[in-house]
Amino acid sequence: MLDVIKKAEETHSLNKDELVLLLKEDKFDKEIFEAADRVRKKYVGDEVHLRGLIEFSNICKQNCLYCGLRRDNKNVERYRLSEEQIINFAKNARNLGYRTVVLQSGEDDYFNVDRMTRILRAIKELDLAITLSIGEKSYEEYKAYKEAGANRYLLRIETTDKGLYEKLDPNMSHENRKRCLMDLKKLGYEVGTGCLVGLPGQTLESLADDILFFKEIDADMIGVGPFIPNPDTPLKDEKGGTFELSLKVMALTRLLLPDINIPATTAMETLNKNGRLIALQSGANVVMPNVTEGEYRKLYALYPGKICVNDTPAHCFGCISGKINSIGRPISKDYGYRKKIFEKA
Ligand code: 5AD
Ligand code: SF4
Ligand code: FES
Q1: 316 ligand 3 Cβ < 6 A
Q2: What are the residues whose beta carbons fall under 8 Å from the beta carbon of 207, sequence distance 6 or more?
Q3: What's the CATH number for 32-326?
Q4: For 136, what's the count of Cα atoms within 13 Å in the CB-facing half-sphere?
Q5: Ligand 3 contact, 52 CB (< 6 A)
Q6: Candidates 105, 107, 133, 176: which one to mutate for ligand 2, based on the most atoms within 8 Å of Cβ?
Q7: Which listed site, 16, 30, 159, 345, has its alpha carbon 20 to 30 Å from 64?
Q8: Has 180 been labeled as part of a binding site?
Q9: So where are the chain's domains?
Q10: For the complex shown, is ipTM > 0.85?
Q11: Do residues 228 and 268 lie in contact, with contact meaning Cβ atoms separated by under 8 Å?
């Protein structure tokens, strides 16, 4: 066991059996988290990158069984921000000190190429790096967004188990999701993906495959979070993922992909009140505080218990900065692109 952890720390390479072994046994979790923390420090340093998250539409044409924004959920009031609101939230984020904004929404076709590129060009004027997280699109659409100024794209694979994916994401295809990730790479985006931990029917073997998939596609960013059952979805009575296992999948991802960006996800903080700080000390180097204003935060309800729903962007910025500084970590002042200092031999 300890020799496998040592191997991961030194070579950044494990096979599936070794990953499953570490996922199964929890006696050496502390050692895994500490090794991931050392690898994080060695490759990406102590700086924490903050990304301001703008949740600009909770309207979604998809019907993922785990998600509160699924189209069949009639219990959530739907909203779309205006172009002006989105740009203003970005401006305010820039003024607070953010160097990146993440534009996230459900799969909402109202935001077509015309509207999105207009928004992207306006935000680009503000000297911000832009991450998009708006779902599956065509190559041409991704290309238009890249040309309009988007720098990064987040699209979680959710699970690499094709059967499970297609069961939980009705009418979506695993092939198309992978096609999207490949297109984004081809177009020169920094590509973020990731998975949910604790989905019903998900095995440790499949989580090991997820980590190997992240490495295989050379992802630039990986977000891992626990699945948290939403009472307004068909998966309401399922168990959901644990904090510890999510943290371990995240830490193992750091060991195998030493120089990428890894967020301490909001869902981790929902399950543990110090979740983000613990994650930052177990391999993570990014936090994505919410910069959406007003009532919208509450309505962007992927899962219950979401943090910060009644807080302002300024409050969250101060809150998280203080917490990060309290564990001796500085807030980065640059855009926080992937450092790419680890090249495979
Ligand atoms: N619990 C945790 N995360 C969820 N997501 C969607 N629904 C849930 C849930 N119930 C995540 C998905 C998606 C991201 C935007 O939110 O992984 O990619
Ligand atoms: Fe829509 Fe994304 Fe939720 Fe699926 S996970 S229902 S695509 S917002
Ligand atoms: Fe929002 Fe702490 S980050 S209240």
Answers
A1: yes
A2: 19, 23, 195, 197, 245, 249
A3: 3.20.20.70
A4: 17
A5: no
A6: 107
A7: 16
A8: no
A9: 32-326
A10: yes
A11: no
